[in-house]
Each structure stands twice: as structure tokens, then as C-alpha cells.
Amino acid sequence: VQLQASGGGLVQAGGSLKLSCAASGIIFSYYGMDWYRQAPGKQREMVAGISSMGDTEYLDSVKGRFTISRDIAKNTVYLQMVNVKPEDTALYYCTTMNTWGQGTLVTVSS
User: Fold this and answer.
1) Is residue 100 within 8 Å of 2, Cβ to Cβ?
2) Cβ neighbour number for residue 81 with a 10 Å cutoff
3) Phi and psi of 28, rounded to 5°?
4) How many CB atoms lie within 10 A of CB 39?
5) Which among 44, 33, 109 is positioned nearest to 78, based on CA atoms?
6) Mind listing the pLDDT tens digit for each residue in 26-84?
7) DSSP letter (8 states) at residue 4
8) Strand partners, 109
9) Contact 31, 96 (CB under 8 A)
10) Cα-based angle 17, 3, 52 (whole degrees, multiple of 5)
11) Is residue 39 within 8 Å of residue 103, measured between CB atoms?
């Protein structure tokens, strides 16, 4: 399994960003996928997850602002982030089957 995350960057508070995670080596629709993040000096936390059935869950602090979705044909999971806040600044990772992508950095300026 290989995961390739992309889409991070510098964005102003209140702005939007869309992260992508392309997966290879798996039958994508059989597995769930999660987005985690780790801010400097903090523990890694789960931000959003989507199950194999398409059910979603979110960290309380991002509910209503982040949306996880997937394109099974493209073997890709997305994380749409709107109304971002400085506290969303972190390295964002996608993960499935105990495999982690390399992370993509999101920096939110105030």
C-alpha cells in the first residue's frame, strides 16, 4: 500500500484548502481512510475518517468546517477545509491499513 498526500500550503484564516490522498496497492472501496494531523509540540490527532461504507466522522473542532470524501474510481480521498483557523496549522497525514502517507503541511496565517 502506498499513500501520497498533497494539497497543503499557506492560507489565510477564513480561507479554504483541499487536501488529496491518492492510494495505490489496495482495493480502495474495501477500506476506510482517515486524516490525522500533528501540530508542533502536540500529539497526532484524528481529524476525519471515512469508512468502507462511506460513513464519516470528525474531530469536534472541525465539524462543520472540514469534509472528508472519496472518489473510488480515482482511489483518492479528499479533505475539504473551509473557514480554516490558525489552530488548524499542522502536518496532515492520510492513513489506512496501518500505512501512513508522507504528510502535507498546512499553515494558516492570522
Assistant:
1) no
2) 25
3) -50, -40
4) 14
5) 33
6) 877 789 999 999 999 999 999 999 999 999 999 999 999 999 999 999 999 999 999 99
7) E
8) 12
9) yes
10) 85
11) no
